[in-house]
Amino acid sequence: MLKSFRVNVTFRILTLIALVLALVYCVAKTEFYITIFILFVVLVLTVVDMVRYVDHSNRDFTAFLLGIKYDDFSATYSGHHKGKSFGEMYGAFNDINRKFLNIRAEKEANHQYLQTIVESVSVGLLCIDEDGGIFMMNKALQKLLSKPYLVHVESLRQIDSQLLTIVKGIKTGERDMVKVVIENKTMQLSLQATEFALRDQKLKLVSFQNIQGELEEQELDAWQKLIRILRHEIMNSITPIVSLTSTIDNMLAGSSGEITKEQSEDIREAIIVIRGRSEGLMHFTETYRNLTRLPPPKFQIVDANDLVERVQVLYRPVFEKNNVQFKTQLSQAPVIFQADVELIEQVLINLLKNAVDAAKEVENPTITISTQRTKEGKAIIKVADNGKGIEQEMIEQIFVPFYTTKEEGSGIGLSLSRQIMRTHKGRISVQSVLGEGTVFTLKI
Q: If DSSP codes are grouped into helix, strand and coil, which group holds residue 437?
């Protein structure tokens, strides 16, 4: 067997030329018809053999490309019998196949690794495509929903229609909560979504977490704090009332039916004090009722920069009265969000009131309001002061209703502000450093 493709082709071409010349000579100079026929047949066979020989290399190349197209990299190629150049080309084919096999193995290993992580986490994960088809559902979610599988997101309607509405409507970075009952078990689910693209396909990954236990613990803790405050406020009013009524009773018991002018004055003063404390207790309970009857927000488009400008104009006399320097750091681009402008304005007023009280106790009191927009499209409003700051122990209490460190404070401003932010699916947070100041952040 000839070792070189070039030699093989050259030999076949020379053979063809020789056969053509011999055939032409026989046709022109002789009458050997049998010889002419044999030469013609041999010429045709030689042409067919040459075409077949050349096509064999083309078929190898086509097979290699088809293997790439259909992800079949199991074939191996040997071209040493066709010469050095073909040997190098077929060697490159084999190297490429091995490279693709290694890439596929790494891809499968990474997929298995990620699949193991997804199945091991305790948070339920649901991935859906644009049409609502279920792309992925991990074991934690299957256990949480008591469903071995879901074919389409509409299947969530069988569990809870509100859950379906939230899953379909939740956007990247948003958080939402829904209460569902599954197999007679009440659960408070916290949902968070992330949207991403995978090979030109838009997907949404929604995480599910049952926070019923944590909420119950927090609710119990909040109730205990509230009861302590209510008990403190009620006892402050009831104790003097009981004491004064006991005094009046003793005065009447020792009067023998006759009340002197001095006793009458004492009784009148006691009644005035009792009335004052009773009115204070009624005011306290009315405030609590207002706190628990927050009206639903009337949403409209709000520009955070315009909102800050309005609040600045509204509170300018207070700043001037307390010699507080007010600064703004507004975003150059509009910071637009949907909210009840009156309620959010009330939150800012509460924060500014607290900031003024904190800042006026230091030299060069300064309050700064800034606005910005996050990458997720959320609006951020920050209210910062350079006051004395808040101790860490107090930070944990300041959002509890009626908790206050001020003599004239009601203790409902920050609690009301948090409730307002929750009705807007937003958040209010605080950071404080003793001796440097405090920053309240609204995210909506």
A: strand
User: CATH classification of 300-443 is 3.40.190.10, yes or no?
Assistant: no
| DSSP assignments along 162-217, one per residue | HHHHHHHH--BT-EEEEEEEETTEEEEEEEEEEEEEETTEEEEEEEEEE-HHHHHH
Instruction: Give pLDDT, residue 85.
Output: 54
Q: E-strand spans in 65-154?
A: 124-129, 134-137
What do you get for the CA distance between the two ends of the chain, in Å?
81
Output b/e per residue, 191-201; b: 16+ Cβ within 10 A: bbbbeeeeeee
Instruction: Read off the pLDDT band of 1 (50, 70, 90).
Output: very low
pLDDT, greater one: 205 or 397: 205
* Contact criterion met (CB below 8 Å) for 278 and 237: yes
Q: Could you tell me the CATH superfamily of domain 122-210?
A: PAS domain (3.30.450.20)
212-230 average pLDDT score? 66
Q: What is the mean pLDDT of residues 304-310?
A: 85
Rg of the chain taking only CA atoms, in angstroms: 43
d(CA 192, CA 41): 79
* Residue 442, SS3 per DSSP: strand
Alpha helices in 322-381 (DSSP H): 341-359
pTM score, whole prediction: 0.48
Which DSSP string do the residues of 249-303 spell out, in sequence order? HHHHHTTTT---HHHHHHHHHHHHHHHHHHHHHHHHHHHHHHHT-PPPP--EEEE
* pLDDT at residue 370 greater than cutoff 60: yes
Strand pairing report for 300-303 and 336-339: antiparallel
* C-alpha span between 73 and 63 (Å, rounded): 10
The closest of 280, 236, 218, 187 to 418, measured between CA atoms, is 218
Domain ranges of the chain: 5-101, 122-210, 215-291, 300-443
Neighbours of 181 (CB within 10 A): 10
Encode pLDDT of 235-261 as tens digits.
Answer: 666 666 666 677 767 766 666 666 666
Inter-residue contact 57 to 5 (CB < 8 Å): yes
Residue 290 has pLDDT above 60, yes or no: no
Long-range contacts of 187-192 (CB under 8 A, 24+ apart): 187/144, 187/212, 188/212, 188/215, 189/144, 189/163, 191/166, 191/167
